[in-house]
Amino acid sequence: MAEPDFVTTDLHSLLDRVRSGEEDARDAIYRRISGRLENLCRKMLRTQPSVRQFEETADVMQNVSIRLLRTLETARPGSIRELYALATELVRCEILDLLRHHLAQRRTPAEGKRAVRCEPESVAQQPEAEELDRWHAFHENVARLSTLEREVFGLVYYHGWSQKEIAELFQVNERTIRRRWHAACLSLKRQLGDQMPSTSSTE
């Protein structure tokens, strides 16, 4: 469900103040969206069991928060819609970085070099590494969607919004949102084929 705080006149006013360079407005926006960011981080970690065993939601949230505050020093989201897109992208980037980190620890090191590993190598680790590969490719391909498809996909998949809520935010009919969602899913399936992660919901 969308959070009512994200569609109030007050938040629009905060965005206007951020565009004017007011630091306290930037911090106020962070306080307003911190709950949403935490939910996003928690949801993303649930889909990544091989990462979740090493990472806590609080730590991921802290890293995303740093990314957001730094980004708001220069970025000036002009609307609620742009703010959502920014938050989605920052969480996606943080999860991608974690996937890269844990993938590197599970890959067989080059000859003559040893990589630091979180656990001993074993045959059982191979399927886990393959699944990390799938998720890494999935999140990278989300970034390659067209802007409109990426926005809709991000709100549905990462934020858990309904198509009706997105249509209200974008001020279009639900058919338009449904068309963009299906187009995004088809694009991902076309790019990934049988490499689509087994637990991703893009039906």
SSE layout:
Layout: H1 9-19, H2 23-46, H3 49-52, H4 57-71, H5 80-106, H6 125-142, H7 147-158, H8 163-170, H9 174-192
Helix pairs in contact: 1-2, 2-4, 2-5, 4-5, 5-6, 5-7, 6-9, 7-9, 8-9
Give the gist of this structure.
By secondary structure, this protein is mostly helical.
Helix content: 55-70%
- Overall residue-averaged pLDDT value: 78
User: How are helices and strands ordered from N to C?
Assistant: HHHHHHHHH
Beta content: under 5%
Number of domains: 1
The number of helical segments is 9
Main β-sheet: number of strands, strand sense, barrel status? none
Question: Which secondary-structure class do the elements indicate?
Answer: mainly alpha
- What is the overall silhouette? globular
Give the CA-CA distance, first to last residue.
19 Å
Radius of gyration: 18 Å
How many β strands by DSSP?
0
Point out poorly predicted stretches.
1-7, 110-127
What does this entry look like structurally?
With 203 residues, this protein is mainly alpha-helical. It has one domain (4-108, 121-195). Helices cover 68% and strands 0% of the residues. The protein has helices at 9-19, 23-46, 49-52, 57-71, 80-106, 125-142, 147-158, 163-170, 174-192. The longest helix is centred in the middle third of the chain and has 27 residues, at 80-106. It starts with 8 loop residues before the first helix and ends in an 11-residue tail after the last helix. Residues 1-7 and 110-127 have low confidence and may be disordered.
